[in-house]
Amino acid sequence: MDDAIRNDAQDGSIAQLHKAMARQECSATSLCEAALHRIASLDRAGPTLRSVIEINPDAPAIAEALDRERRQSGPRGALHGIPVLVKDSLDTADRMMTTAGSLALVGNIARRDAFVVERLRQAGAVLLGKTNMSEWGYMRSTRACSGWSSRGGQVRNPYVLDRSPLGSSSGSAVAVAAGLCVAAIGAEVDGSIVRPASSNSIVGLKPTVGLISRTGVIGVADPQDTAGPMARSVADVAALLNVLTGHDPGDPITAEGARRAAADYRVFLDPAALQGARLGVARECFGQHEGTDAVIEQAIAQLRQLGAVIVDPVRASALPFFGDLELELFRYGLKHSVNRYLQSHPLAPVRSLEELIRFNRDHAAAVMPYFQQEFLEQAQTRGDLHDPACQQVMAELRRLSRAGGIDRALREHQLDAIIAPTEGSPPFVIDPLVGDHILPGGCSTPPAVAGYPHITVPAGYVQGLPVGLSFFAGAWQEGKLLGYAHAFEQATRHRRPPSFLPTLGAGTPQQRGSL
């Protein structure tokens, strides 16, 4: 295989690859072959990242058909022939399974694509396969391990292999970071797009809830669930977002999203977008790790140099990550979401949350070697989202995150957006037996609970471990956030590819980075 094509598939942006295909320097087929080769050498062998849970056996044929179509009638658009992976919680009506990482759903073949998968196919993307994830969106146990699933095993961070990829869209983030695909689709209820994106030095966008359809996506809690794009650059995220938005009659909330969506999010990618932007620093998200804080302080100084007006401090929210109120919503929401999904998929081996819990008990050695399923069992005791107790929880969460949080901060300080470290610390050591060591800093919860947009962009490294900078704002402000993130990204160029170091301290000082 030509080295130039292999490098294009590994490092090229959507726009660069689109131009290369137009010049006949590569093709959908050659890009697909290069991506599959890299998956075989890095994900299945070599550092063994385990980020791809299943390969699409039809990917080469899809790529060949798209090449024929290009020759006959030209490209469909910017994604024509681009290799993309999707999270294992998204339905694909093909020969691949949708399992949410669970052995209980092995054999589950969807009868129709998730709406976002349908949009990708229509745009000409080559669907390479499914990405591994934290089983059931991290919601099986109260001490789950990010990136671990009973079906796919443990996803590994490509920067330092014994460090967490964070979750639950861990496989999507790692695959993008390691160049196994050009872009990927993740899904989030709280942090599942932005936290793995930050911890793997890529760009991740959690959009406003309602901008992207949830039809055909195994979720956790409807009020906060959304799919979203993940890529190595803000421009690629914007290109993906153009494709993913649209009204889906199967998800009525997208009617407003379709009205609010920009015609082309790439028009916001202005290197001068930060000039005069008022950005509030959410100081409650700092203070958990001196290395992360130092990287973000440097980023704040760079934002000032780029013309932003920094308002420091502001308080975006008092909501803790996975606090008691939010977890209670997840218990109701998970029961509702799992039962709805399983009952609408006749090929699913289990047909309810109750049956899922029973399957896990019957196959405990394979399914639960490290941690149990107490969160699923707690969810089984709850009602559904219409239960008055759940409605009360939802109302209080929205009050705290919106009127008492983000909306208040934006209004009182006349802000365009709020900034903070995405994650409270650099990625911690993987420990499936004890679970994740998550420090309480970071900022995924306020915009997640509010249903507001949130983008993370690489900001630097601590001893070779990635740190992301977050921008979030009010509903439907994706364009503005993309502009700010793009301006920061283009001026700083912090992201560098992973070195696959076996553990912290290995490699050269340049590979490790510094405080």
Keywords:
515 residues; Amidase signature (AS) enzymes; 11-stranded mixed beta sheet; two-stranded antiparallel sheet
Report on the architecture of this protein.
With 515 residues, this protein is an alpha/beta fold. The chain has a single domain (3-512), classed as Amidase signature (AS) enzymes (Alpha-Beta Complex). Helix content is 38%, strand content 13%. It is built from 18 helices and 13 strands. The chain has helices at residues 3-11, 14-22, 28-44, 59-73, 115-122, 170-177, 194-199, 234-244, 254-260, 290-305, 324-343, 353-362, 364-367, 374-380, 388-412, 445-450, 478-492, 509-512, and strands spanning 52-55, 83-87, 126-131, 148-149, 153-154, 183-188, 203-206, 226-231, 278-282, 309-314, 417-421, 454-462, 465-472. The strands form two sheets. An eleven-stranded mixed sheet has the order 1-3-2-6-8-7-12-13-11-9-10, sandwiched between helices. A two-stranded antiparallel sheet has the order 4-5. A hairpin with a 3-residue loop joins strand 4 (148-149) and strand 5 (153-154). The longest helix has 25 residues, at 388-412. The protein is globular. It starts with a helix and ends with a helix. The mean pLDDT is 96.
Give the gist of this structure:
This protein is of the alpha/beta class and 515 residues long. It has helices at residues 3-11, 14-22, 28-44, 59-73, 115-122, 170-177, 194-199, 234-244, 254-260, 290-305, 324-343, 353-362, 364-367, 374-380, 388-412, 445-450, 478-492, 509-512; strands at residues 52-55, 83-87, 126-131, 148-149, 153-154, 183-188, 203-206, 226-231, 278-282, 309-314, 417-421, 454-462, 465-472.
